[in-house]
Amino acid sequence: MTALQTSMHYSFTDTEIHRRLRRLRANAFCIIGVHLRTTFLSATGISQSISNLRYKRQRLTFGLLDPARPFDAGRFTERTGVFYGWVVLGFAVLGVLASVPGQTMGVSVFADPLIAATGLSRLALSSAYLVGTVSSGLVLPIGGRWLNNHGERATAIGACVLLALTLVALSQVDRIGAAIAAALSADRAIVTFIVVAVGFVSLRFSGQGLLTLSSRNLVGQWFDARRGLAAGIFGVLMSLGFSFAPVLLNTLIHATGSWRSAWLVLAVTVGVGMALIAWVFYRDTPEQCGLLPDGLVDGASTARATARPVATRTYTRSEALGTGPFWAVALVLGVHSATMTGITFNIIDLGASDGLSSAQALALFPPMAIIGVVVGLLAGMASDRIGLRWLVFTMAVAESVGYLGATQLGEPLFFVAAVMGLGTSTGLMSTLQTVSMPKLY
């Protein structure tokens, strides 16, 4: 296909072609060659069209990560009339829900069994979790680099396998710690703490980090004009799933007879089930399937695509890190993530300090989930129409109100403030995590 044919077929500006194909270039796992044919357009000499991009796979993958395997998503859209991006969105939600064992609400259910098995105090276990969370955050940029190089599909599969292996190891963490301590003639408590902390690093990196990141990024790749709406739907489904996760995990522990068995069941579910789902249904971008974002097609719809304003430039990683908006968004999201991790993990103790029973303390989350669902959907739709700065500002204010309320959960007014503030900020966070970076860069 010539450059002119490609330009006529997609009706994108040169800048948009460059931006889309630059993302696409890194999406295949174990790429051994990317062949580009370019042509300079117009007398200005400032526009470049990338007219041909082909992928070749290393023999190691046997072509299993080819976008056309195990089925062609483009043909699926042609035959059913259903834009495959909506299919991707549904399974991306499932991918994030599969990360629950690595999320705080998933780990907190296993806190008491871990304390009983390892002999660690609650403070020591919380400290190990803090070490794991902070350390995984520090190494997550390496995972982001892997994501850029190999794409969401391959990253999600790898994250599922790593998360499964981590769950298997954690199901025996007390025995592993005791064996290492005996072999080294070291203090068992110290060794067990280190082993648990290392396990939490891997758990948070693979689950809360890579699997969530790769699944969430898919939504931004498959939607452009409708990205806000898609993010809102994504956030609603994710919040509903997360709100039921602690109850379901607690039921699983009782159904399997032990926390060890529950983690082993989750390991098989994620490592085999979710990894297989990611391979079958995940596709990195619509372009590699012969489609366009939002389900746009040639004809009347392409006029809409052409009329839409496009980014005037693209950003490298270092350039994005040098901009103020990146750090403004990262600060608000980062503070919320860190604080909510602490609140969620220690909610029972926080409630007890204010005279609340465990049931009363846990009652904070259902109304928060409802508020988060509503706010996330509204914010998703609003993000297509208003500037991101207003969403970031609103989230920062809501966070502040929520933190103030959390200082006195025993007081009804403060409890309501915590529910409203943290619920609103959680809903906004879900949307901003999906739409902010694609919109800015």
Which features characterize this protein?
two-stranded antiparallel sheet; 2 strands; 72% helix
Structure in words:
This protein is 72% helix and 5% strand. With 441 residues, it is mainly alpha-helical. It has a two-stranded antiparallel ribbon. Helix 4 packs antiparallel against helix 9 and helix 10 (227-256) runs antiparallel to helix 11 (259-281). Residues 1-60 and 299-312 have low confidence and may be disordered.
Question: Any chance you could write out the topology, listing elements then pairs?
Answer:
Layout: H1 3-10, H2 14-24, E1 31-41, E2 47-57, H3 73-80, H4 84-98, H5 104-108, H6 111-118, H7 122-170, H8 173-184, H9 188-222, H10 227-256, H11 259-281, H12 300-307, H13 317-321, H14 324-345, H15 347-353, H16 358-362, H17 365-382, H18 388-406, H19 412-440
Antiparallel strand pairs: 1-2
Strand content: under 5%
Termini separation comes to 29 Å
Give the H and E element order: HHEEHHHHHHHHHHHHHHHHH
Q: Summarize model confidence as the mean pLDDT.
A: 80
Strands, total number:
2
Number of H/I helices: 19
* Structural class by SSE content: mainly alpha
Brief overview:
Helix content is 72%, strand content 5%. By secondary structure, it is mainly alpha-helical.
